[in-house]
Design brief:
single chain; 295 residues; alpha/beta; Helix Hairpins; Pyruvate Kinase, Chain: A, domain 1; 2 domains; five-stranded mixed sheet; 7 helices
């Protein structure tokens, strides 16, 4: 049995760890509230953007040849997989779930003879893939704690360049969709070609009444300018969802760690009380034995 001094030292160590995890839980909770507010502010704009593009497309004879982001490539040879992870750990299975989903998606594509290019956001994902000796085409580090719209624009512009140049035939985002502090859902979203995600799904039915509008500049020009904005908003929204999910996962992980530390402290305190009781009992027995020897 460990001595009382060793047990006290372990209790003190666990108590210090609990203070750290409790502080990290409170910090994550504060950041989660701010991240959730940013998502709530962005979602209506993103939804309205999709509706507006769909409505605009209904007034235009959509010829994919005239809209590079709508054009579907004839042959599926290469896919860009954009993986949104975190720059920091201590957030449970947040990063490992994303990496596992990305690996599964790439394996399924390669089984079909389709190559996959990795574009990673976050130090944890980039480090994991490099440790596994998987080539990373592009990485964006140090932006996941508080992503800005400029960060989303940089990523979206790179994706646009890859797709319009024909280097990739599809672009897929893999990120954690924020539901609540204790629930995040791994999501795969095809963002290019846009026709698969927006126009084909959101375009009004043929039976729906349509109004005639006059556009200046022409509707084709407006639509061509809006499509890159849609992609930027889609990437920005995914970054915000991932950030909120990260803070929620970290808050939950730190809460579980604090609870486990409390249980460990209780167990160590019980062990120390037993050790103290055994020590007292041993001293009493020694006193009794000494008194019997003198009598």
């Amino acid at each position: 049995m460990s001595s009382q001094r060793d047990i006290k030292r372990r209790i003190s160590s666990v108590q210090n760890t609990k203070k750290i995890t409790k502080a990290m839980e409170m910090v994550a909770a504060a950041r989660l509230r701010r991240a959730a507010q940013r998502i709530e502010a962005t979602r209506p704009y993103a939804i309205r953007m999709n509706e507006f593009i769909a409505d605009m497309a209904s007034h235009v004879e959509v010829d994919p040849a005239g809209f590079p982001l709508l054009a579907r490539h004839d042959e599926m040879r290469r896919v860009a997989v954009v993986v949104l992870t975190a720059d920091r750990g201590l957030c449970g299975a947040f990063n490992s779930n994303i990496v596992r989903a990305a690996q599964q998606l790439m394996r399924s594509h390669r089984a079909e003879g389709v190559e996959a290019d990795l574009i990673v956001v976050g130090k944890k994902g980039a480090g994991t893939f490099r440790f596994q000796h998987q080539a990373v085409a592009n990485s964006y580090l140090g932006i996941t704690d508080k992503p800005s719209f400029l960060d989303a624009q940089a990523i979206a512009n790179r994706l646009t360049e890859l797709y319009t140049s024909g280097r990739v035939d599809r672009v897929v985002l893999i990120f954690n969709h924020f539901i609540s502090a204790i629930e995040q859902r791994v999501t795969e979203q095809v963002v290019l070609p846009i026709q698969d995600e927006v126009v084909a799904k959101n375009a009004p039915a043929d039976s729906a009444p349509r109004l005639d509008f006059e556009f200046e500049p022409p509707a084709e020009v407006i639509l061509n300018q809006l499509l890159p904005s849609y992609l930027q908003i889609a990437v920005y929204r995914a970054l915000l969802e991932s950030t909120a999910s990260e803070h929620g996962a970290r808050m939950t992980a730190m809460r579980n760690a604090s609870d486990s530390a409390g249980e460990m402290i209780d167990g160590l305190t019980l062990a120390m009380n037993r050790a103290r009781q055994a020590s007292i009992t041993q001293e009493i027995l020694e006193v009794v034995a000494g008194a019997d020897a003198l009598s």
